[in-house]
């Protein structure tokens, strides 16, 4: 059995590639979550516009606040990871 020569051309460490693939997969999932959270936020805004009575308005305010906080949390997480939605198509193609 030959020893693995790390750092030599053509001899890539499979663990590094796996971690890179895992990081890309996590970034893609985060982008999908951000898009879903944005859709939920927009839907909560629309529900608020059509709320009629006090209970509906209270619920819509709660749902709108929760959707906004979730969206903000995911955006902060994306910033920490250096994920840009502009690059999202490139991540999916990789």
Largest sheet: none
Strand content: under 5%
Choose one word for the global shape.
elongated
Mean pLDDT: 82
Question: What's the number of extended β-strand segments?
Answer: 0
- What's the order of the H and E elements? HHH
Task: Please bin the fraction of helical residues.
Answer: over 70%
Number of helices: 3
Specify Rg, calculated over alpha carbons. Answer: 21 Å
Low-confidence stretches: 1-7
Structure description:
The protein is mainly α. Helices cover 74% and strands 0% of the residues. It contains 3 helices and no strands. It has helices at residues 14-49, 54-81, 88-93. Helix 1 runs antiparallel to helix 2. 7% of the residues are buried. The model is unreliable at 1-7 (pLDDT under 50).
Question: Mind sketching the topology for me?
Answer:
Elements: H1 14-49, H2 54-81, H3 88-93
Helix pairs in contact: 1-2
Can you give me a brief rundown of this structure?
This is DUF2508 family protein. The chain is mostly helical. It has helices spanning 14-49, 54-81, 88-93.
Salient structural properties:
74% helix; 3 helices; 94 residues; DUF2508 family protein; mainly alpha; DUF2508
């Amino acid at each position: 059995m030959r020893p693995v020569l790390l750092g030599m051309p053509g001899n890539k460490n499979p663990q590094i590639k796996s971690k890179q693939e895992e990081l890309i997969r996590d970034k893609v999932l985060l982008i999908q979550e951000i898009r879903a959270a944005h859709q939920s936020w927009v839907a909560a805004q629309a529900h608020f516009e059509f709320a009629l009575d006090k209970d509906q308005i209270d619920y819509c305010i709660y749902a709108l606040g929760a959707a906004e906080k979730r969206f903000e949390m995911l955006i902060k997480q994306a910033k920490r990871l250096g994920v840009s939605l502009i690059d999202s198509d490139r991540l999916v193609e990789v």
